[in-house]
Write a structure and sequence with these properties.
single chain, Rossmann fold, two-stranded parallel ribbon, globular
């Protein structure tokens, strides 16, 4: 399982881990979409909450995840992405007999995260991405190949970014203490790694943890 705030680089590292160990990346978004599309009992129940604009209850979310983890491609391992988000979800997952071998916490200073997220720009037609500081376009505000305008995602403006980080601190960060205690009890292993630096360096640190 990967833990860390928005913008810390979980998506990049999750893909690396899945490729390196040939395991599926398990996200609740994909699970919801598949369950609803298949019109399973749990999927239709989840859809009923979504259609009413309500949050899907933790027990139902965990049941959907548990069903996904029972699939054949998860028997040799899996990576949880964006789940659990809260301590009640973590406890429900544990109650279902799902244990985690490793919890990796990626961390970076708050202001660095804000710079990372607010500096992102993309070219709508192609999906090419840039960063005002870390990967700037050749011409300010223009796509390198077409010269067309680059845009900022609505959820990358500073007010929204800071709100997302606040939500993370209130809802998800307490999971770190939960899994730290789990590690002290020998139920899992937890590692704290910096999300700063070159991607390859972070990947090497993750491999050292997972193969150690």
């Amino acid at each position: 399982m990967l833990l860390g705030s928005p913008g810390v680089g979980k998506g990049t590292q999750a893909q690396f881990i899945c490729d390196a160990f040939h395991i599926p990346q398990i996200s609740t978004g994909n699970i919801f979409r598949a369950a609803i599309q298949s019109e399973s009992t749990l999927g239709l129940l989840a859809k009923s909450y979504s259609d009413r604009g309500e949050l899907v209850p933790d027990e139902l979310v965990c049941s959907l995840v548990k069903n996904r983890l029972d699939d054949a491609d998860c028997q040799s391992g899996f990576l949880l992405d964006g789940f659990p988000r809260t301590i009640p979800q973590a406890k429900a997952l544990e109650a279902m007999g799902v244990s985690l071998d490793h919890v990796i916490v990626l961390d970076a200073p708050l202001e660095e995260i804000v710079i990372r997220l607010t500096g992102r720009r993309f070219h709508p037609a192609s999906g090419r991405t840039y960063h005002l500081i870390h990967q700037p376009p050749k011409v300010v505000g223009k796509d390198d190949l077409t010269g067309e305008d680059l845009v900022q995602r609505s959820d990358d403006n500073e007010d929204v970014v800071r709100h997302r980080l606040d939500v993370y601190q209130r809802q998800t960060a307490p999971l770190i203490d939960f899994y730290r205690k789990q590690a002290e009890q020998g139920k899992t292993k937890i590692a704290f790694l910096s999300g700063l630096g070159k991607i390859e360096e972070i990947q090497a640190n993750i491999l050292n943890v997972l193969k150690g």
